[in-house]
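Reviewer comment 2.1 asked that we show a complete input and output for one of the modelled complexes. We chose the XIL case, as it is the one discussed in the main text.
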Amino acid sequence: MRPFRFATVALATAALALPLLGGSASAASPAGPKAPPHAHGSHAPLRAAAPEGFVIGTAVAGGGHHLEQDYPDPFTYDKEYRKVLGREFSSVSPENQMKWDYIHPERDRYDFKQADAIVEFARKNHQVVRGHMLLWHSQNPAWLEEGDFTKAELRGILREHITKVVGRYKGKIQQWDVANEIFDDQGNLRTQENIWIRELGPEIVADAFRWAHKADPKAKLFFNDFNVESVNAKSDAYYALVKDLLKQRVPVHGFSVQGHLSTRYGFPGDLADNLHRFDALGLETAVTELDVRMDVPEGSLPTPAQEKQQAEYYQRMLEACLDVEGCNSFTIWGFTDKYSWVPVFFEGEGFATVMTEDFDRKPAYYALRDTLEDARHHDCGKGGPKGPKGPKHKH
Ligand code: XIL
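Response of the prediction step:
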């Protein structure tokens, strides 16, 4: 039974680099022309490799930065993309399709088309869905940000939005990111940027959780943010806030780390410790938006050493989550470099996902799969969402 430590997995990582040694960096894809033969000889997709009760997810590409690219909507139009999406993952997160500017384009108009399609795709493919998100400072429609609303009106708008959106997908969403990125890196609430907190005060955050809970009592309700992988000012702020809200019996169920990492920076080695402290509060934890970007000069491909380092980051994130009893959901922010948001948002960085633009598996893919398989073999079941579980013991 989890958690267990991953003494053996380091060896698997070493093996990951091997198929690349014969390949050349100038090959059509960084992982070589074809997916390299796998050291363990397994061809299980990620979702099948995962321990029982542990979901492995991806963002579903569409909206946001995709709208400005010269390809049609990936989720709707790219057949191969959809095939891999259904085959590899047991959880999906709409990348943009449930954000305010997408789902609520005018004050009196909601557009559920894409979100509905994703939820339906998930049902057909036996996947759970992470709802992303309900309260954020970004990607809000102009009618909201620039509207001249009274406090009472704004409160009504948020309440209606949450009730409607969460209610529509009642019973179909496993976890909701209720509050996204409400603190800055210093651990201060975004009292200026975030329209809700600015206009209605910090108490609105608790209300958002209450409204969401009322609309779908079974959905697990999360705080979600970036740069909270480590124990730092920002994650400390969440820890203090969550403690306080739990004391007030606000229905907060989870704390999740996005995990937008870059190999420019060291790996957040205290991730498991950080998650453990939230776990000890009785919360679920999750990794919700992992990608690992790399500096690659324009026109070049990552070197084998870079891909190995990237694979290690992916693996260590997964190991940390597997190490924590209530961390049962692990999501990568897209699975193919073809559609990643990274090159659009981070100049000079890219190749952040686990598959090439041609859907060839990169070392990072195998690192995830090895780690999942290892956990599944050592594990007597991850046990599903936090709740009755067997005793913890290490192997
Ligand atoms: C990103 C999307 O990937 C892009 O398509 C969009 O243009 C901007 O937002 N934190 C979050 C996600 O919570 O919603 C962001 O997604 C990435 C950072």
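The mean pLDDT is 89. We note this here for comparison with the apo prediction described in Section 3.2.
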